[in-house]
Structures are given as structure tokens and as C-alpha cells.
Amino acid sequence: MLFVWSYWKTIFTLPMNPSKEFHLSYSDKESLEREPRGESQQEVLRRAAKDLPIYTRTMSGAIRYCDRCHLVKPDRCHHCSVCDKCILKMDHHCPWVNNCVGFSNYKFFLLFLAYSLLYCLFIAATDLQYFIKFWTNGLPDTQAKFHIMFLFFAAAMFSVSLSSLFGYHCWLVSKNKSTLEVFRAPIFRHRTDKNGFSLGFSKNLRQVFGDEKKYWLLPVFSSLGDGCSFPTCLVNQDPEQASTPGGLNSTSKNENHLFPSKPLRDSQSHLLTDTPSWSEATAKAEKGKVG
Fold it and tell me: Which of 111, 137, 173, 264 is the right S-S partner for 6, CB 3.0 to 4.6 Å?
């Protein structure tokens, strides 16, 4: 039942798109069309994105913008060429479920892999004794024995492929990465960091499965956040913002501390506030101010 439910939710859960605040206004669209490509267009995009909780940039350091959807891309959002729309926290487009795997159905996809693997292992284990009897001529000479052999081979092969795929995605969850981010690491304003969104194993797991453990094994949506903003372990301050007193930029001072440069959504910020290193960083900052 859980296997079918997870498969159903993976297929029929529509991928989430960026909220309206990431779409350009009519005036911004006109300004973007009038301006020639280059720094002038980036200035329009910077004005539109100055209050948005975005941290990542393109390889050239520009604002991530989708020409087809006419929106500023949120962090970890990518445009799917098959669905022809931007998908929040897109992992990949899966042809086996004919749907994009992203923020809205990634948990369902993981549960579908887990229950499929358990189902195949159960079939292979219960069919093993009859498979052995097939080779020792312990089965009646009927056509059913060939069905037993085919069933065991199919279950065993699917078990191997599903175990590798499920193990890979478990590793992605533990590192808080997507498949696209493995092939191309996210680029932040100050540098490229493949582990920029990783907050530790426990918090990475909670981002996908939620805080309530009773819902972890059920195909109900319990992921944290809204898919548009994500806590990051990096500090990235806008170059337009004033530097800290004494001429020290806060980026180099607290680079390894969990301190977001822009406000996160309420559902995401608690992942940072209950971290022990947060209190240590605050205490050090207070001592520095007193000094």
C-alpha cells in the first residue's frame, strides 16, 4: 500500500514553481527589454533581486535569470526543458515517472525507491528456495518453474539497480545536494562551494523529511521551507553593503559560521538558530565588540 501510494504521489504531485515575488514586474520587464545586454541589464536584475533571499549566482557572477519564465531564479531552482518551466530545488526529470523530481515530491521519490527496493528484496528472498529447487530438479516438470526463474532474476536485477540508486540519493540527502548540484556546484557571490547548503547530517535530513519523525515513512509532504529560500553555512554579503567597523568585511570574518546575510523564511531560520555554533559565534562577536 505504501509502495503504491508513494509511486502515485511521485507521479501526480505537480512540481512547485517560484512564487510571484520572484517574477519581474511589468515595468522591470520593459526596462530589461530596452536595455542592451550586459551590465545595464544586470543593474535592472540587481534592483529586482535586492530584497529576495538569493545567494547563488551564475558562473560569471551575474543574477540567475530565466528568459523563458521571466523571473529571477531562486536558489537551487532550474528550468526544466521537458516541463518548460522553472522547478524549485530541481533534482532531475525522471522519465520513469514522467515528472520532475524537485522540492514538492523529492520525499515521495525517496520513499518510492525505498519501498520498491524492499518489495524486490522480499520477492527475491521468498522465491530463492524455489529457484534452488529449479536447478536441483526439485520442482514438478511444468511451465510454472520457468516463471519462478524469471521472477527471481527480475527481482534480483531490480534489487541491484534500486539499491545503487537509493544509496546514491541517501548520500545526496546526507550532504544536502541535488543531482544537478553534484555535476555543477552552486556558485555563491564570493566563491564556488559544493557544500554551501550542507548544515550537518541531522539538519540535512530534516530539510527533506521534516521535524516530525512520525511522518518520515509516510508519503505525506513534511519537508521544511517553501522551496524558495534555503539556509546556508556560508556568509555572503553584497558588495554594495557597507563593511563592518574597522575596515573588516564580515564575509572573511565569519565565513564558516551559520549566519545568513538575508532573512530566511520562518520555516527555514530555525535550522540555524538551534545550532551550537550559532551561540559560539555570537559570543565571539560580542567579545570582539567589547574589545
Answer: 111
